[in-house]
């Protein structure tokens, strides 16, 4: 995928809304495109994580396996489509992380993959940019926590 196409996709992603074009271009420089087939897993609950993912097209379900003694199963936390972000946030803190959910493609899905440590490098070079990104991550984490609690209430 050409860098100009990646820049265009990032500019349309709500997570990167408000960033200037130079910052978007720097982020595009650390992205790689990866296609996934329907049913394919992006990451599994329990995996070690280091990447962030931007959905270009398609549909991804975030699911968590639960074991409540006599009740075991899998709950859908959230379904994510075009322009949504998922992955391992703790890499931005320079820490190892275990994935707390599984991300599965429900249809053919195009993903931009960013290594968290590389994004962290850009963030530490430009504190205002870094603050903006961390603020956006906080909003996503709030959404995911609310979605997880909502899903657990259905158990």
Automatic annotation (TrEMBL):
Check the record and name the Gene3D superfamilies matching this protein: Jelly Rolls
Q: Its domain of life?
A: Bacteria
Residue span(s) of domain Cyclic nucleotide-binding = 15-123
Instruction: Report the source organism.
Output: Desulfococcus multivorans DSM 2059
Pfam families in the record: cNMP_binding
What range does the record give for the signal peptide?
none
Task: State the protein's name.
Answer: Putative transcriptional regulator, Crp/Fnr family
């Amino acid at each position: 995928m050409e860098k100009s196409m990646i820049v265009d996709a990032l500019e349309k992603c709500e997570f990167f809304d408000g960033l200037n074009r130079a910052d978007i271009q720097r982020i595009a420089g650390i992205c790689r495109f990866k296609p996934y087939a329907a049913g394919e897993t992006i990451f599994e609950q329990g995996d070690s994580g280091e990447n962030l993912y931007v959905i270009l097209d398609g549909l991804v379900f975030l699911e968590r396996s639960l074991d409540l003694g006599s009740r075991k199963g899998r709950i859908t936390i959230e379904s994510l489509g075009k322009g949504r972000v998922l992955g391992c946030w703790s890499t931005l803190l320079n820490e190892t992380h275990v994935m707390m959910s599984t991300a599965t493609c429900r249809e053919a899905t195009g993903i931009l993959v960013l290594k968290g440590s590389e994004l962290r490098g850009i963030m530490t070079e430009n504190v205002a940019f870094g603050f903006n990104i961390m603020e956006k991550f906080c909003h996503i984490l709030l959404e995911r926590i609310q979605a997880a609690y909502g899903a657990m209430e259905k158990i």
